Amino acid sequence: QKEVEQNSGPLSVPEGAIASLNCTYSDRGSQSFFWYRQYSGKSPELIMFIYSNGDKEDGRFTAQLNKASQYVSLLIRDSQPSDSATYLCAVRYSGGGADGLTFGKGTHLIIQP
Amino acid sequence: EAGVAQSPRYKIIEKRQSVAFWCNPISGHATLYWYQQILGQGPKLLIQFQNNGVVDDSQLPKDRFSAERLKGVDSTLKIQPAKLEDSAVYLCASSLVSLGELFFGEGSRLTVL
User: Please, what is the end-to-end C-alpha distance for chain B in angstroms?
Assistant: First the structure.
């Protein structure tokens, strides 16, 4: 059973600070890792994906992957009130043509003005 | 480019009734997914289609859920008979190719009374 664990929060961060979101996964065969943002009542939207160990930066967002520790994180710099949302960590393990994502429960992030 | 279209957006039914949801993926997208998202949880994959063939339906409750994708384009997800625990948002997603980025529709919110 592939599992993805996230702290459900809420995680409260002051505006302008760095928000740090964490995720662990159970299947060592997992090959790619995704962070989605979901506003209340809306569908998930992709923020970033990462395949290799280390850091990947995109604007204010940095994804970090440590496959040995089975750990993925997302850092949001200069947090804005518009970043308030639920952040979903997702893991892809592909085999036999099946490549659907396994999602965590999400972390609810609140950016305080 | 038009996004993933889903209908209906909202549906309220009594338990033991049936319901069907429709999804039209982005034009040209070969892979289509149906996810179930219960309130407070992350999306859970129900079924994956590659063109009009099923690639993964391991988490689909086949005693009550069925899905089809005729002609490799539109897809329908049916629940019969519905249970209270089926209350959720049903998300359809598509990707251009296997292992590609997923694009989600707005979802169909089901309430079972």
Answer: 37
b/e code B55-89 from CB counts within 10 Å (16+ = b): bbbeebeeeebbbebeeebebebebeebeeebbbb
Closest CB to A43: pick one of B42, B44, B107. B107
Interface test with B, best of A31, A43, A50 (most B CBs within 10 A): A43
Residue A67 banded pLDDT, cuts 50, 70, 90: very high
For residues A75 and A18, the answer to whether their CB atoms sit within 8 Å is: yes
pLDDT band (50, 70, 90) for residue A96: low
Q: Which among A93, A109, A113 is positioned nearest to A4, based on CA atoms?
A: A93
Nearest to A48 by CA among A25, A66, A75, A82: A75
Nearest-angstrom CA–CA distance, B64 and B87: 14
What's the confidence (pLDDT) of residue A28? 84
- Residue B1 has a pLDDT of 66
User: What is the per-residue pLDDT across B62-98, written as a single tens digit (0 to 9) for each?
Assistant: 999 999 998 889 999 999 999 999 999 999 999 987 7
Asked if B82 and B18 touch (Cβ cutoff 8 Å), the reply is: yes
Contact B98 A94 (CB under 8 A): yes
Spacing of C-alpha A84 from chain mean position: 14
